[in-house]
Amino acid sequence: MTTRLFGQRVPRSEDARLVTGRGRFLDDLGHDALEAAFVRSPHAHARILDIDVTGALDVDGLVAVYTYDDLLADEEEHGTRVAEPLPLLIPHPTLTHGRTPYALARDEVNHVGEAVVMVVAANRYAAEDAVERIRVDYELLPVVVGVEAARAATHLVHEDVPGNVAAHMVQQTGDADAAIDAAPHTLELDLAIERSASTPLEGKGVLARWDGDDESLTVHTSTQTSTSVRQAVAAKLGLPVDRVEVITPDVGGGFGVKIVHPWPEEILVPWAARRLAKPVKWTEDRREHFVSSAHERGQLHHVRVGYDDDGRLLGLSVRFWHDHGAYIPYGLIVPIITSTQLLGPYKTGPYRVEFHSLYTNTVIVTPYRGAGRPQGCFVMERTIDAIAADLGLDRALVRERNFIQPEEMPYDQGLVFQDGRPLIYDSGDFPASLDVLKKLVGWDDFEAYRERARAEGRRVGIGLACYVEGTGVGPYEGGHVRVETDGTVVVSTGLTTQGQGHQTMLAQIVADELGVPFERVRVTTGDTRRFKYAVGTFASRTAVMSGSAVALTARTVRAKALRVAAQALEAAVEDLEIVDGHVQVKGSPTAQIDLGAVAVLSNPLRYAFDEAASRATQFATPADPDRPPVEAGESPGLEASDFYSPTRSTFANGMHAVVVETDPDTADIRVLRYCVVHDCGTLVNPMIVEGQIHGGVAQGVGGALYERMEYAADGQLLNASFMDFLMPYASEVPEIEIDHLVTPSPLNPLGVKGAGEAGVIPGSAAIAAAIEDAEGFPIHRMPISPSELFHLRTSRPRKDRP
C-alpha cells in the first residue's frame, strides 16, 4: 500500500448506492405486511371516558383494533409486560418523580399526539379509514404549556407529581455565592432557548415478522440503537432475547430522536405481528413525527457571575428550568449535559449549578444533536460577552484571560458528567484555537469592514462562541473482524448508522490495521444477527468507541494471521509484514502468501469443499505431532471480536465566528460569513468530519434563526408541518470556512475525539453575539426572527435605538 488510509479524504463507499436510489429504508421493506395506524389524542390533557370502535368494524380490509384493555388482557393471559408503562431508561437518584407513557394510553392522555388506539389493516389506506371512524370521548383537564406555567404549578401534568418537578439537582465546586458576593464586579442575566426538534428526512418506522414454528421475532426498525430495541422488545413481549433479532436498514437521519428505545410503536407492532401471526408494518407520517416523537432545547436560565477588573471569572452560579414534556423516558441526560458542558473551555472559579426538570403537556424531550450543549454554550458565551461589554473589553480578550491552558490538561472540572464519571478534559489547546479563528475570520480588522459597510448604509456585526463537547461516552462498543478465504474482510459492529459515513470510516481503520486494500473491507452496522452487544449511535461516539473496538479487533486478527503465515512461510513472526493483502517476508516480497490463503490455513478442515479448502485438510501438509490443529485458547478461522471500554469521555472542542447583516428597515438577518475551528483529535477522514460540521452548522443556523415549536396555550402545536415549521434552505446556510486543530486524545488507541454534534453547539451563541454587535443591544433569547428583532428595536427608548 502506497499510503495509509487513516487520515485521508477517502470518498464515502456508501454514496454510490444511496444517491442512485438503491438504498433500503424501512418503508422500502415489508410490501407483504399488514399496516398499522393510530388514533392519537387531539387534546393536550384529558381523561379517556369511552372508546367506541364500532364505526370502524365495517371498513373493508380491517384486521384488528387494539386499545389498552387488549394489552392488559394479553398480559394477564400470556404473561407479557405490554400493559406496563414503558421503561425509564436512565434512572438517577435525583429523578424522584419519573413518569413514562403506556404503549397505548391507559386512562389519561398528556399531550396532543399520544397514541390511544392501534388499528391494523390490509393496507395503510384502510387503516387510516378505520382510524377516522373510531370515536373517543374525553373529559378535558387543565393544560400546562411552557416552563413558566410548569414552574408556577397552578395546574399539574400528573396529579401525583408535586410542583410538576420530576427532578431537582445541584452540583457545585466551592462556594460560588460567597465568591460572587466578594467579587469587584457582578452581573445577573436571564437567558432562554426555545423548543425545537430534529425533524429527520425519514420518520420512525417498524416492521415485524413472527415465525410461529421457530417462535422467533425479526424486527426491522429505523433506530439509533438496534441492540437496545432487541432487549426492550424481548422484555416486554416475554421472549428470550435469543428469539428476537433487530435489524436496522438504511436510516434517513436520526439526530437523537431515534435513540429512544422502545418507542410505543416498537412494542406494539411486534406484539401485533406475534398475535396475528402475520408481518405488520408502521411508517410514521410527518404530522405524527411532529406531535408524537420528541423535541428538545427548551430551557430558562438565571445567571449570577462575579469577575475582576480584567474580566477574569471569580465565581459563577446558574439556576435553570428544563422542560422535558409529558414524560421523561430518557432521564436527565439533557439537563445534566447542559449543567456540566456550560463551563466550556473556561476556569470559572467556584461554580454552582442547579436545575429543575419540569413536566408540561407537550411532546417528550430527548437528546437532539447537541443534546443540551447548545443551551449551555449560549448561557456561558452570552455571559462572557456581557462581562466584556460591562468592562469595555474586547470579547476575544476576555475569553483568552479565562481559558484553561494546554499545560493544565488533563483538567478536572470537579463535576460528574452524563456517563456518571468525573468531568475531566483530556486534551485541547484553547488559546491556539482562538488565534486560528481570529485570523480566519479577520477579527482584528473587522472595525474597518464595519465602517465601510456603514458608509454603504449597511449594518453588520461579528460574534464568536467557544465550546467543549464530551464525546465517546461508554460503557463500551465492540467489533468483529473476519477474513474470508477470498481475502475479503468482513467487519461488524452493533452501532447503527444514519448517514454519517460509518462504513467508510471503519473500513479505513481496519484496512490500515490489517494492511489490506480499502475495497476489500465490507462493514455491517446495526444488525443483531451479526453483533449482539452494543450501546448505540449518539453522543458523537462512533469513531471513539466503535473505531477503537474494530482497531483492537483487527490487531488481534493481524497477530493471528502473522502466526499462521509464519508456519506456512517457515519464517519468524517478527520477520513478517502485511502489504496490500499479502503476508510477506520483510525485504523479500516474493516470499508471500495472500491473506485469504492464510484464512484457509487458519481453519483446519477434514473435508475439501473447494480448491482453496483443500489446502487446510489433514493430508495437505505434514502434521506437527507435538501441536494440536487448533491451538488452545483460539478458535478456527481468521477472525476475532473485541470490545473497547473507556475510563471516561473524551472532550472535543471548537470555536465559531459569525458575521451577520441586519436590515435597517425590515430587520431581516443574513449570515455573511461562518468560520469554524475544530479539534476532534486525530481525524480518520477529514472529508467526513467536515461534512459533519457542515450539517451541524446548518442545524445551528436553523436553531438560531428559524426552527421552533410554537405551542398554543391549550397545548396544540401550531406549526406541525413543513408548511409552517421553518428550516434553513441552502440559500440561508452560508459557505462554511473550516480549519482544524489536532490535539490527540490520550484515552483511546486512535487518539480520536467525537465530531458528529460539534457543528450545531455554538450556533445560537455566535449568531446572537453577532446580532447584538450589529444592533447595539443585548440578545437574551433564541431563536430570533426578524419580527422579534424589529420589536426589540422599537421597544427600546428612542435615544437607545440604533
From TrEMBL:
Q: Which residues form the Aldehyde oxidase/xanthine dehydrogenase a/b hammerhead domain?
A: 20-142
Top-rank lineage group of the source organism? Bacteria
* Molecular function per GO: iron ion binding; oxidoreductase activity
UniProt-listed Gene3D superfamilies: Aldehyde oxidase/xanthine dehydrogenase, a/b hammerhead, Aldehyde oxidase/xanthine dehydrogenase, molybdopterin binding domain
Q: Which UniProt keywords apply?
A: Molybdenum, Oxidoreductase
Q: Name one Pfam family in it.
A: MoCoBD_2
- Tell me the protein's name: Xanthine dehydrogenase family protein
Query: Which source organism does the UniProt entry give?
Result: Nocardioides mesophilus
